[in-house]
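Exercise 3.2. Students should predict the tertiary structure of the chain below and write it as structure tokens, then compare their answer with the key that follows.

Predict this chain's 3D structure.
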Amino acid sequence: MQYSSSQSESDVPKPVTPASTYRLQLGPAFPFAAAGAAVPYLASLGVSHLHLSPALEAVPGSAHGYDVTDHTRVRAELGGEEGLRALAATARAHGLGIVLDIVPNHMAVPDPLRLNRPLWEVLREGPRSPYARWFDIDWEAGGGRLLLPVLGEPPRADGFRVDAEEEVLRYGEGDTEREFPLRAGTAGLPLPELLAAQWYRVACWREARTALNYRRFFTISDLIGVRVEDPGVFSATHTKVLELVRDGVLQGLRVDHVDGLADPEGYLRRLRAAVGGDCWVVVEKILARQERLPPGWPVAGTTGYDALHRVDGLFADPAGTAELARAYADATGLPPWEATATAAAREVLTGDLAAELALLERLAGPELAPSVRELLIGYPVYRPYPGGEVAGAGTGTVGAGLDGAGVDGAGVDGLDGVRELVVRDPAFGARFAQTSAALRAKSLEDRAFYRWAPLLSATEVGGEPGAPAVSVAEFHAYCAELERDWPATGTVLSTHDTKRSADVRARIAALSQAPGEMGVGGSGDPGSSGDPQLGWVARQSALGLGDVPDRGPRLAAALLKAAREAGLRTSWTDPDEEYEAGIADLVPGEAAGLPGHLTEAARANVLGMTLLHLAMPGVPEVYQGSETEYRALVDPDNRRPAAFPRGSLAALDAGTAPHGLAAEKLALTAALLRLRRDRPALFTGYTPLTASGPAADHCVAFARSADLVAVATRLSHRLAESGGWNGTTLILPRGRWRPVYGAPGGSTHEGAHEGRVELAKLLTGLPATALIRVG
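Answer key:
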């Protein structure tokens, strides 16, 4: 069904910066109709915008939608365009807008291949196809043919069959049959000549590591890169999305994996010109702690992993993390974080990304080839881009990368030569940047983060596991910078890509305050198993997940994934079946829960992280179900259908006092989301508030505008061990203040006589509170 832009201007709401977003994971099990049914609840919760996962046509049955097959159609399995427009109408009727996740970097190499028509036509017509410009294909490297690594084994000549009538080539039988287009005029050739005459070569998936000649998403050969830097390709792949923005169906866009693009800024400028100035646009851009988003990008900011790292870091005790790191090294014999990250980068670059490295080395020439490798391995951020800044290293991350690069086989002159080539040659520079981004993602997120397990809460996207702690002063400086430069950026704590939900990380982070609870040297020593590294992962994962439904199978699945990603004893490509059969035995029993004295520390972490996230500068996103206590491990565990606490919210609204962490978190979340929606002026400005006294470093507090204050307890277990607040006070702005929720009798606090209030009184019964000015 085709839709036209027939709505009158008065029917289309003017897009505005969201007060908050709520992420919904769409799929065949949760289509547009299910999202529509949740709208009344989400409106009552206080969010202003739904954030939908990708909704264009994708591989049938896809649970995530990032494997796009057709940019011109809304996905039929979700309800099609009619379903999306119906959802938008329902959302509009409840005062909500919609933000859509879009995927400009790649498309699927699907089965059947004809689902991706542009790719099908390239396979049929070769480099002369008008669609050949869509994809980064190195025809020279492939001997004039595109490698198709889609088979489970090397192809056998007797496995091919020619269907001259339909002009297709088939391989295999039954459920494993694959179909490929035939080049015109080749159907009557003898089979060996026919295969040699095609514009592609069908191969086993293992050949992709060394012989792949198209750009892909990370190391996933089933996702082929798209050249959206080409204006024609941009237009063809964005027409439907732009129509939905023009029609008021969408008010915002999340740009997936912007680092994969050849020219991120050029793409974003073209996108901004197409959607207009009022559409809220954020990019999935992983910023290292010392890195800053280029100020010239025409976006509201990032999707928020930089905020996640700062909030998490406040609740990691530096002394405890160092103690855990020492114990981990003793138990496992594995190297420290920096060496772990470097080794993982070298393995991934010379193994999984060998084809990408070979292309860059060929383009650079034999003299610079070793330097290409070393600069990529030593790069301090995901990729270079004009205007990118690394704090303390000046502007331009190409230059900054030199200091961090190794020199194995590459002298300084060679590194400098590669840097100049990146700047001077746009084609080489773009491919170097794209490879660098893929390398960082695969070597850090998908390997080193799974090997380094002293404190699993620190191994999250955008984090620095070797030094995860963030001081109060650092947090304030970051928030002040956000408010000044990127006030409408996204912020997150849990996403579909986090390895552990925020509440699981909050529980694990409590270990940094009591590292002895890892059980090292005792009967439950995680290092005493046959695999001490995975034993640490199992112990902390179990403590983080706690007592939840299907605990055993969920932990076992997460441990299997962790072992394969780490690549120490088994892997996805070469699994050790005997070793993997024993992984489930590492799952701790039900009794191995979080110790009682750390349960309160975990509660303080959960509520403190929630408060800071929802009160700090930026646009906070609530991941589906995480408005209440939400414990999930890595995907697919975190992509299970959402459970909305409708009854709990209704009970709170009816006056029931919040009892238990789940209700406390829900009450705090709803109160702040509703304030953000109804009184957005409260959430402007940023002023750090200073605590004084022996426990001052355990308090993080700030004011937004002149009428809202947030106060949270950090490292609460250490605080209790040292005797509590012990007279520590906080300077509140003058006036009368009442808690947003949860205070007995709605008590007020006055910022009288030098504006000081005792934290022991302010935080009675609650480790975190938001205060609003009375009168």
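Discussion points: The longest helix spans residues 426-451. The CA atoms of residues 174 and 762 lie 69 Å apart.
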